[in-house]
Structures are given as structure tokens and as C-alpha cells.
């Protein structure tokens, strides 16, 4: 049976990419019966009577799946933050990094509008260095037609990529700069709310530089619903690495004695703001109301 990947879902039809051709498929009733919704990004087995139309027969095991946007098997996320308008926030970036790491997605950090950040440029370069030292690729771009994005584009090869990050930072503008054929609608920042207006609708994977990129921003929900307190440290890579040296297994790096993580914060090996965000997120997870 032929296999392919769903690159678009619209009005009950699933568009399956198989090599160079795209087959319009419907889902079998068995999916509805088993409460399975095929997602963009799914690797599927399908049956086609001819080259244009067919049926989905099977959905292969997913590596991961996101709720917003509904997409599966994501390899990497370009996390887009602006240096200014809205102001760069390490707390928000760390929140996104936790969600991305928890879903086994490789993050790429992109800080836009560097040309507008005269007063904070030095500080942002320092943050960029901190995140590079942790092991993350960090790219700084200017507002001029996504200048600086040419360094990000090679990362798309053979991967499924989503864009995510603050509202109003110009994710759609960046995608348009990378692939002008997209002509994605862009709105400015709503001055009243100080956040961008949502301009994207259904999900579609588009071909860019030998890979597939989702044409809609991801992670509109930033709650840590699926993350347990004991696993949070592993989503902060440098904390996860240091925790192997803690005296107690299962150390949460708060009040425990002989904690290698707290010692690394004191020594400046781990940035204090990263540790503060870890503590803040840990409190949030512990205070979470149980769902029944």
C-alpha cells in the first residue's frame, strides 16, 4: 500500500504528499469510531483508485503532536522574539523552550527587530550568548525584509518546522521574507492590547528549502499541562545536565542539601534568571489544580 504525509487538512479532506504527487483523501469511518483525528504532519498509509483521490487506511505512530496548531511529527520550532515592540522577555522565551523540549522538538531562537533596540542591544547580545552556551542556535535579525533569516533557512532541509513565539513579533512577515510566494496576511500590533492580532487560519505544510514548514504559528496555549514537577528540570538543558551531580535522586533543586544545580547558580555556571524561571514554573506546576 502507498504511504505519504498529510500536508493539509481542510473540510474533511486530507491532502497526502507522496513523492512529487499530492492525493486528496478522506478518512475512513474507523478513525471517527476510534476517536482518532488525522493531523497535518501524520505519516499515513492510504489507498487510491487513481492519482487524485483516495482513502486513509492507517496513521503511523506519532513522535509528538501539538494542539495549537493541530500538527504532528514536528522536528523543530523557530522561536521568534523581538528585541523591541514587544520587549524581549527571557521569561516568555524560557516558557516556550520548556514546551518545545517537553515535546522533543529542537528549538532555534530568532530575535527580530535588532535595529530598533539601541538601548538594549548589548543586553540582548549577552542573552544570545547565554542561550548559545546552553547549546541553542540563536540568530539575530533586523526589520529590513527579514535580514538575517538567510542563516536560518538551511535548518529547514528534510525537517518539519513550526514558527512560534510572541504575538506581534512578525512571524508571518518572516515567513513571507523566506518564501515570498506565501503572501501571508500580516497585521500590526493591536495598540489597545499590546499584542498582535491573529492572522492565520488552517494549517498547511509548505515546501521551503527541501523541508516542510507550517504556515501558522504554534503554541498559542502556554500552560504546562502535560509536564510533571520532577520532569521540569530536564526541559532546562543545563539544569538537567547538572542534576546528575545532585546528592539526592529526584532533587527538585529548591531546599535539598548538596544540590549541584544551586551550587552552579552560585558559581555563575547557570544563569540566575534561568534558575528563577525554573523555580517560578515549578511553583506553577505544583499549584496546578488536578483535572478529573
List the helices and strands and how they pair.
Elements (H helix, E strand, L loop, with lengths): L2 E8 L2 E6 L2 E7 L1 H5 L9 E6 L4 E7 L5 E2 L4 E2 L3 E7 L7 H13 L3 E7 L8 H14 L3 E3 L19 E6 L5 H8 L10 E2 L4 E2 L8 E4 L2 E4 L14 H7 L1 H6 L17 H7 L5 H15 L6
Parallel strand pairs: 3-5, 8-9, 8-11, 9-10, 11-15
Antiparallel strand pairs: 1-2, 1-4, 2-3, 4-5, 6-7, 12-13, 14-15
Helix pairs in contact: 2-8
Organism: Bacillus swezeyi
Family: Belongs to the TRAFAC class YlqF/YawG GTPase family. RsgA subfamily.
EC number: 3.6.1.-
Written description of the protein model:
This protein has 292 residues and is α/β, with parallel strands linked by helices. The protein has three domains: 3-61, OB fold (Dihydrolipoamide Acetyltransferase, E2P) (Beta Barrel), CATH 2.40.50; 71-214, P-loop containing nucleotide triphosphate hydrolases (Rossmann fold, 3-Layer(aba) Sandwich), CATH 3.40.50.300; 229-286, Ribonucleotide Reductase Protein R1, domain 1, CATH 1.10.40. The protein has eight helices and 15 strands. Helix 2 (90-102) packs across helix 8 (272-286). The radius of gyration is 21 Å and the shape is globular. The two termini are 41 Å apart. Mean pLDDT is 86; it is low at 186-200.
